[in-house]
Structure formats: C-alpha cells, structure tokens
Amino acid sequence: LAMAKHIAPEMELHVSTQAGIANYAAASAAYDLGAKRVVLARELSLNDIAVIRDNTPPELELEAFVHGAMCMSVSGRCLLSHYLTGRDANRGECTQPCRWKWQLTEEHRPGRAFEVGETEEGSYILNADDLCTAPFIDLILQAGVDSLKIEGRMKSIAYVATVVNAYRMALDAYGQSLATGTPYQLDPDLLQELERASH
C-alpha cells in the first residue's frame, strides 16, 4: 500500500478478499494504511458485515461477494488447485478441485476407495453451495455494503451478462421498494434466470 501510494498517489486502493478482512479492526487498519475499499471475506454473515460497518469510518467502502462459488478455503486462500494442476487459485486460475468427485481411502485397505457422499451424483466432500443473494439483496445493502462483487473470472460472457443484468434489476427493484415503502421481493423470473445461468 505504501508503494502504491508513492508510485500512483491518485489511484484508489482496494484491498482484496484474500487479505482476510473479517473484522472491523482489520478493515480499519486497511483504511488507516490508505485503502478506500475493502473486499470482505466471503465467509462473513450479514451480522458480521453490519458490525464492521458500524465500527469503521463511513468513508471506507465495503464490498461483499453476492454471487458465485463459495470457496471451501478461508477467504479464497487455497493451495489445492496449484498443487494438483499447477494453476494458482490465488492468481485467478483456480480449477476448483474442491468440486471434483473425491473418494476416501484407508491405509490398511490399499486399492479400495470408499464413496463419501450420499447422492446419486457422487461425493462432493469439499465444496460448499454456490452463493446467490439476489433474493435478499435488501439485507445485504442494509448491512452496510457499498459495492456488490459478482464472480466473473473464467466465466463466459453470457454468464456474466446474465448475472450482472439480474442483479442490476434486483437493485432497481430494491430502490423501487424504498421509494414506494413496500417490502422488497425478487421477481421469481429473475431467480429462474440466475438458476439457468451456466456455472
């Protein structure tokens, strides 16, 4: 951050989710070092985000993931992809090995692999469900999020366009609900559009 401020003093500084900003002390420290925005750790709850917002300078922008894969590693800091394929997750090249089918082996039963999962589709013991916050985007914004982060790296143009459009419409619907004093509700067609997006 010090080097960035020295070399490009007019550039806005944003701190990545991989910095593990998971509490207000870390967020405030990043702000004190010159960050304008922090991308919060993916594993935070709405309450965690609200606590960070309530205890950080209002000028500090908070960005949160709202749609995409939920990494099974803390804040996306994972070594599996690099170890298994040579493609580094921490450089945006994750092959998502956590989503591969895995089997369990035991040292006294060589050559015998055991299924771990309970579904007909296979065993997926490492990955989490994907994140889709469109149905409760109002709660995300009310928690104090300034910027929405949609996973788009290594995704098709059609996927990115579909998801960004759906969230734009969800944000507009939330704005309309504020203007009219009615509760926010996501259009079911938008949710279906998100569920159909290839991922």
Can you describe this structure?
By secondary structure, the protein is α/β, with parallel strands linked by helices. It contains 7 helices and 7 strands, in the order αβαβαβαβββαβαα. The chain has helices at 2-7, 24-32, 46-54, 80-85, 137-142, 157-180, 188-196, and strands at residues 14-15, 37-39, 61-68, 104-105, 113-114, 131-132, 147-150. The strands form 2 sheets. Strands 1, 2, 3, 6 and 7 form a 5-stranded mixed beta sheet that branches. β4 and β5 (113-114) form a beta hairpin. The longest helix is centred in the last third of the chain and has 24 residues, at 157-180. It is globular.
Q: Which helices and strands occur, and which strands form pairs?
A:
Elements: H1 2-7, E1 14-15, H2 24-32, E2 37-39, H3 46-54, E3 61-68, H4 80-85, E4 104-105, E5 113-114, E6 131-132, H5 137-142, E7 147-150, H6 157-180, H7 188-196
Parallel strand pairs: 1-2, 2-3, 3-7
Antiparallel strand pairs: 3-6, 4-5
Please outline what is shown here.
The protein is an alpha/beta fold. It has helices spanning 2-7, 24-32, 46-54, 80-85, 137-142, 157-180, 188-196, and strands at residues 14-15, 37-39, 61-68, 104-105, 113-114, 131-132, 147-150.
